[in-house]
Amino acid sequence: MACVTKEAIGRMTRLIGDADKAQCKVNKLRSITAKLNEKDIDAEAEIFKAMADPYRLKILMLLREGELCVCEIMIAIDRPQSTTSYQLSILRDAGLIRERKDGRWSRYRLSEGAVIEMLNLVKLMKDNQNGGGDSG
């Protein structure tokens, strides 16, 4: 690892032009990256991947309004039952939604309030990006 650090310090020195500052920056970066947990990052990336599909995001937005059965969701997103079920399974596996059996029907809801907060934050970011936030 000392070799990697030496190489990193050399690269940083070339970028910023000061070996002492480069050493401090590389040490700080090493300290930060040592705290990162790859398994956590992979799990968190799966959540973002699940939300990244427009149909799955639409499903999440629909479920923000309350529990829905598969038949309601497939009509709302205008997709066949098999496609809808597949999209729901991805969302469920990512922990974003919960399934409840109701006789022969499966009903879905958001897994927790944090999902609503994530959707609200995405909207806020989009609005700010477009210069549209509420002014008052």
Shape verdict: elongated
Largest sheet: 3 strands, antiparallel
CATH architecture of the largest domain: Orthogonal Bundle
Class based on secondary structure composition and strand pairing: mainly alpha
Tell me, what is the CATH class of the largest domain? Mainly Alpha
Name the CATH superfamily assignment of the largest domain.
Winged helix-like DNA-binding domain superfamily/Winged helix DNA-binding domain
- Total count of helical runs of at least 4 residues: 7
Strand-residue fraction?
5-15%
Strand order, sheet with most strands: 1-3-2
Question: Helicity level, as a percent range?
Answer: 55-70%
- Radius of gyration using CA atoms only: 22 Å
Mean pLDDT, nearest integer? 89
CATH topology of the largest domain: Arc Repressor Mutant, subunit A
Distance between the termini: 54 Å
Low-confidence stretches: none
- Record field, number of beta strands: 3
Describe this structure in words.
This protein has helices at 2-16, 19-34, 38-52, 54-63, 70-77, 81-93, 113-129; strands at residues 68-69, 97-102, 105-110. With 136 residues, the chain is mainly α. It has 2 domains: 2-34, no CATH class; 41-126, Arc Repressor Mutant, subunit A (Orthogonal Bundle), CATH 1.10.10.10. It has a 3-stranded antiparallel β-sheet. Strand 2 and strand 3 form a beta hairpin. Helix 5 (70-77) crosses helix 6. It is elongated, with a radius of gyration of 22 Å. The N and C termini lie far apart (54 Å).
